[in-house]
Amino acid sequence: MQAIYLLDQSVNILNVPNAWREKCQPVLDAAGDVVDWIIPKGTIVEGAEALLRVSTGQCTPFDEECVAAIGSTTQQLEATQRQYLAASVGIKGKKDMELFMAGVIEGYGPKTTDENPVYLPGANYDAWQAAKDKLKTDKGTI
Q1: Distance between CA atoms of 70 and 84, rounded to whole angstroms?
Q2: How far apart are CA 117 and CA 133, in angstroms?
């Protein structure tokens, strides 16, 4: 039973189990110094670890055995993965979570504050903006 990581996973290299050490890669700064260790996106995990990581949204099933064992629909898995991604990029509040889950935003840009979020557009951003603009126009003609 196998699953595959959707994002790089930061790890504490001092505590990572030996079985994972060979999969870990260093993250280097501009000077070549190690600033973090990761298990890279695309790494395959197996067994109980695969089930755990799929159930939290960190991984997607890689084989039919994992799909059967997790017992979730494709839509349920996608929603769980999207929730994990939302937490990973720091999505805050109900409104922003709804926008993120709908694919309107992918996260926040530089200079974002709690009072004035700067959105990184998602796949559905243009359609959302067009709907907002149409609503403003429609309200102006009433």
Answers
A1: 17
A2: 19
